[in-house]
Amino acid sequence: MNKQIEVIICSGTACYVMGGSELLLLEENLPESWRDRVTISGSPCLGFCRDRQHGKAPFVSVNGTTVPRATIPVILELIGELLEAHDAPQ
C-alpha cells in the first residue's frame, strides 16, 4: 500500500539559523520515485526548541516523529525507511 509521508520543516528563527534554511531544499534532493509519495511543507515554528528534551535545532517532523539536528541526509534516510516499511508485504 502506498502511503504518503508528511515532512514539516521548522523555519522558525532558531531552526533557520541552525541549518533549517538548507532543509528547505529537501524537495530538490528527493529521488524522483519518492516525489509523489512525500509531502513537504514549512512551519513558522514547531515549538520544539522551547523544551530541551526534544534535542537541538533545526527540527523537522516526519509523520509526527520529531527529528532534532535534522540534515538532508538524515531526513532522506528516515523517509527511505518509512517508505520501505510501508511497501513491505504484510
Keywords, please?
Glutaredoxin, 34% helix, 4-stranded mixed sheet, 90 residues, globular, alpha+beta, single chain
What does this protein look like?
The chain has a four-stranded mixed beta sheet with strand order 2-1-3-4, covered by helices on one side. The relative contact order is 0.26. The chain has three helices and four strands, in the order βααβββα. By secondary structure, the chain is α+β, with helices and mostly antiparallel strands. The protein is globular and about 40 Å long. The mean pLDDT is 92. Strand 3 (60-62) and strand 4 (65-67) form a beta hairpin. The chain has one domain (5-87): Glutaredoxin. It has helices spanning 13-23, 26-29, 72-87; strands at residues 5-10, 38-43, 60-62, 65-67.
Secondary structure blueprint with pairings:
Blueprint: E1 5-10, H1 13-23, H2 26-29, E2 38-43, E3 60-62, E4 65-67, H3 72-87
Parallel strand pairs: 1-2
Antiparallel strand pairs: 1-3, 3-4
